[in-house]
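Subject: Interface between my chains keeps coming out wrong

I've been trying for a while to get a sensible model of this assembly. When I model each chain on its own everything looks fine, but I need the whole thing in one frame so I can look at the contacts. Pasting all components below, labels as-is. Any help appreciated, I'm running out of ideas.
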Amino acid sequence: MLKIKKLHKSYKMGDSSLHVLKGIDLNIEKGEMVAIMGSSGSGKSTLLNIIGILDEHDSGEYSLDDVEIKNLNEKLAAQYRNKFLGFVFQSFNLINFKNAVENVALPLYYQGLGRKERLEKAMFHLEKVGLKDWAKHLPSELSGGQKQRVAIARALASEPKLLLADEPTGALDSTTSTEIMQFLQQLNDEGRTLLIVTHETDIANMCKRIVKLKDGIVMQDKNIKQVRP
Amino acid sequence: MIDFGFFREIFQSISKNKLRTLLSGFTVAFAIMLFAVLFGVANGLQNSFNSEFSGDANNSIFIFSGRTTKAVKGMQVGRRIQFDNELYETLKKEYKNDIEFISGRVYKNLTASYKDEKSGYLIRAVNPDHQFIEKTDITKGRYINQLDLKNKAKNIVIGKLVWEDLFNGEDPIGKYIDLSKIKYKVVGLYIDKAEGSDSNEERIIYMPISTAQQIYGSNDYIDQINLTFNPSMSGDQAIAFSNKLLKRIKQIFSVAPNDQAAVRIRNQAQALEEVGTFNAVLSILVLIIGFGTLIAGIVGISNIMIFIVKERTKEIGIRKALGAPPVSIERLITFESILITSISGFLGLIAGSVILDSMEETLKEYWITDPGVSTSLVIGATITLIIAGTIAAYLPAKRASEIKPIVALRDE
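Reply #2:
Try treating it as a single job with all components included. I did that and got this:
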């Protein structure tokens, strides 16, 4: 479903350039739950940004659901993001003046759905993350775990092919982290494809496959026995 | 089809970010309000100035006489120069083409009484042309006419204040007033619009000059000659004409050409030129004030818009990550700006007019009458601010919509 071949990415730093990704090969099939691990500077965030069409690669191949992602203009990139991908961020990234259900409904707005349909779908996904009763609350009135669940509901709302999570538990305490991971596992059980960037071994071990990056290349890629709390 | 969702997004953004909305709205409203008030006050000043100087026809020339101060042809200093009907006829004949209207004036102070009411008034005995030189507006009856003049009729025209003093609201036309024991018939009632209501110009009684000359002097003396020059004359021509007149009159009365006191002339054209200059300066001042306010408003709204877009960078990043195309980001921010500036511009406009209205009475004491701005001007200023606000929002919005969502998301 996701195919990456000899992916390179460098950043210009003044006169010199920083070679961050030095030929990454990665294939992810439908229904997988993959953790990408690595210390800071290993290139894991850069890889996630490229996979998320938030950033562009320099060379190599990247295709998503058999669609090649290359030289997209902003409009098309936005369309693909909306159609293929759901994002979960470390810092939640909810819009603070919108309540929970409106945040969840936002990607549907950009899909061009009518208001009624949007809110219905958003409510359905909020119910799935167990926050139906909190639909009218602003992000500032929610706990960290609740915020992340709203963010997950939002990521799911557009029915993406791939759910991308960047340190989804980075801002949460361990109990809440486990809860969130349990929930992500549950989503995987339902057949969703998940890609989780983390530097915590505990979190990575709750996935089915770990890809370790170091200095811009894949050091290790192995399937593991999933830890289920 | 109207995209309600789009407008809902805007309204939500406006209503949920009250401080931001208030800040930009206040800037625009305040600028427009200041613009309206300053422009209105300046206009009021100009109004006062204009009305002060437009009491008489703009092309009028007044000729006065006095005593000689220079000896000439063996005649002594201190000789009194007395105008008379002959001078009037001479001027009228010799300058037929240059003169539009001409009238002599004889002044008297008399006590007028009607029934039980009694009061002293200034009497001006004049020729019929005087009506047009003084811009007297007859509201009832008629002015002094040629027939009155010929018959030396005891007919008078009274001002509004004279009527209010003496008549207690009674219709004065056809009634008889005692002027120092001689009965005069009131044939007309006038107001002096140019001087403004209740001015002393409305406390005067007019009668035929021939009547006054016969009854009060048995002579043909004239105290003052007023005339208006041909309106087709340019300012320079008018000044040349009045100089010519002065020279001719001095010649008639054997006055030394350099005698400043024996015969004097006041030309409105000259005064008008000075008023014109002052008005031009005032207009420029008004423009500077107006545009200054406007530019301050534009700078203010631009700053706020740039700040708003900066503040919303992260939100823009989130929206883009969720699939918002760049165009939708530009539209969202630009329309929000248009909406805020339009509404607050309108509010500022209302506030400005309310302030001007409520201050009208107070401002009168400071020589400012009828302050106000033309609606089209204020609306023009509002539209200018809306356009400025739109551009000020569009440019940073466009830039923000083009930055990579990853950069925007990193913004804390």
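Reply #3:
Confirming on my end. The helical segments of chain A are 44-51, 74-84, 100-109, 115-128, 144-157, 174-189, 201-205.
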